[in-house]
Amino acid sequence: MNAFASIFQDLAPAVDFGWAGRLYVVALLVGVPFLALLQPSDREMDLPPRSLLYASAVIGIWLLAIITALILLVEDRPLSAVGLKWTGVAPFVIWTVVTAAIALVGDWLITRLAAKFGLRESRLTYHLMPRNRRELTLFMGVSASAGFGEEFTYHGFLLAGLAGWLGNGWIAALVANLSFGVLHGYQGQAGVVRAALMGYVFCLPVVTGAGLLPAMAGHFLVNALLGLGLWKWLLPPGQEVPEG
Question: Long-range contacts of range 139-143, CB-CB < 8 Å, 24 or more positions apart?
Answer without folding.
Answer: 139/50, 139/54, 139/223, 139/227, 140/224, 140/227, 141/54, 141/58, 142/54, 142/57, 142/58, 142/61, 142/223, 143/220, 143/223, 143/224, 143/227
